[in-house]
């Protein structure tokens, strides 16, 4: 009886193995069909990442980046995915840096450990965070795209970092003469200024050439120079310098909306705002919708900020879709840059023809786009081409100004959606 059961069992197993083998052969034959292969590939996903502050004082900037990145993921996938990979879809990995450089570095380490199949990442918004995160991504040979401004980012000999906007130094060198032309057009001739700046890497990079001779070349005297560590608790002592010296314009370099709010409110309290003292800043935080809600259009009117990107002329279609999809009132640098970075990753994947991070990095190094070709349409400048350090040599800046309750591009002319004004009293 036992022997009979054993024989039946062996017979059943042989029959199952034979059936399985036949099925495998059949599937192998079917797998040679292009239609089947395409269907299988279409089910594949390629992971790309966004690492940005999604908690803490810079969380709103991370939120805006996330919205831009998600829209780009949707657009790439709706357009058929990565065609050179058989229509593979992009999948976004979202990572919170937290609110310190150390937390950002730890988050990056978790990211590369938990997602070894990431092919590229964009982030980390604040230059100080980007410097920490990129140390991790460099060791992992993971290509990182960034909108951060610090010159240090692409001066370390890294091979896997790609900086899209002009560096802080280049922005300051380019922006100051342009801003003085804005003043001259309005009939003003500013002769004095003062600096209030936080000590983050991006602000430091922007202020460096201003402090080291740019103002002198323009015939402008620096009356005071104040530095603070964010988050700011009280702006009284800082703005008191502006009240005492009454410069023709104020260079105000923060990086967080709460700090901007405190500074602008104190400027108003000391009767320096409302168009009486032109204010020049750097970074997209100065154009955040929350600033309008918390400060009001009157105090913001005429305030200018220098940015590496912004929703501008020629991008009206994507700006409108972004508004409809997200409910945001406009498309800031954070959103348009994250959108463009995902599109650039998709472009690199198409060229690499392989979901491999090193191949994607090679494709990025070979990018040579002019004008508004492909993903270059989402960045200001004459296209995208990276030098050996990983900096986009064709980048340009944008100057945005608050006018009638909205931050609009006013420079360069090819990106401008409004004529620039120089607030009275400057």
UniProtKB/TrEMBL annotation:
GO terms for biological process: amino acid transport. The keyword Signal applies. Residues 45-405 form the Leucine-binding protein domain. The keyword Iron-sulfur does not apply. Keywords: Amino-acid transport, Signal, Transport. PROSITE patterns: TAT (PS51318). InterPro entries: BCAA_transport, Leu-bd, Leu_Ile_Val-bd, Peripla_BP_I, TAT_signal. Belongs to the leucine-binding protein family. This is ABC transporter substrate-binding protein. It comes from Limoniibacter endophyticus.
């Amino acid at each position: 009886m036992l022997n009979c059961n054993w024989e039946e069992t062996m017979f059943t197993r042989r029959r199952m193995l034979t059936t399985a083998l036949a099925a495998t052969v059949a599937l192998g034959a079917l797998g040679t069909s292009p239609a089947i292969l395409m269907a299988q590939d279409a089910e594949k996903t390629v992971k790309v990442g966004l690492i940005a502050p999604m908690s803490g004082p810079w969380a709103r900037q991370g939120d805006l980046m996330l919205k831009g990145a998600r829209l780009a993921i949707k657009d790439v996938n709706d357009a058929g995915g990565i065609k050179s990979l058989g229509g593979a879809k992009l999948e976004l990995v979202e990572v919170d840096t937290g609110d310190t450089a150390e937390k950002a570095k730890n988050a990056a380490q978790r990211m590369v450990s938990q997602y070894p199949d990431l092919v590229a990442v964009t982030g980390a918004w604040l230059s100080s965070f980007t410097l920490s995160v990129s140390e991790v991504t460099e060791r992992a040979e993971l290509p990182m795209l960034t909108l951060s401004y610090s010159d240090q980012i692409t001066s370390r000999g890294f091979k896997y970092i790609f900086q899209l906007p002009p560096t802080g130094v280049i922005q300051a060198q380019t922006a100051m003469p342009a801003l003085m032309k804005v003043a001259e057009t309005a009939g003003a001739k500013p002769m004095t200024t003062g600096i209030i700046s936080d000590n983050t890497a991006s602000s430091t990079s922007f202020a460096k050439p201003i402090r080291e001779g740019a103002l002198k070349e323009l015939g402008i005297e620096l009356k005071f120079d104040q530095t603070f560590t964010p988050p700011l608790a009280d702006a009284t002592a800082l703005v008191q310098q502006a009240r005492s010296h009454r410069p023709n314009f104020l260079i105000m370099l923060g990086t967080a909306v709460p700090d901007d709010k405190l500074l602008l409110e104190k400027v108003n309290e000391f009767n320096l705002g409302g168009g009486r003292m032109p204010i020049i800043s750097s970074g997209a935080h100065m154009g955040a919708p929350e600033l309008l809600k918390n400060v009001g259009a009157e105090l913001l009117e005429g305030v200018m900020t220098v940015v590496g990107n912004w929703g501008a002329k020629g991008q009206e279609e994507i700006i409108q879709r972004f508004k409809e999809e997200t409910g945001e009132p406009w498309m800031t640098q954070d959103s348009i840059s994250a959108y463009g970075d995902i599109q650039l990753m998709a472009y690199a994947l198409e060229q690499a023809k392989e979901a491999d991070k090193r191949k994607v990095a090679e494709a990025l190094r070979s990018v040579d786009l002019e004008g508004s070709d492909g993903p270059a349409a989402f960045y200001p400048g004459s296209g995208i081409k990276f030098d050996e350090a990983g900096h986009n040599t064709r980048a340009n800046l944008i100057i945005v100004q608050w006018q009638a309750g909205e931050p609009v591009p006013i420079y360069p002319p090819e990106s401008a959606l409004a004529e620039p004004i120089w607030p009275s009293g400057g």
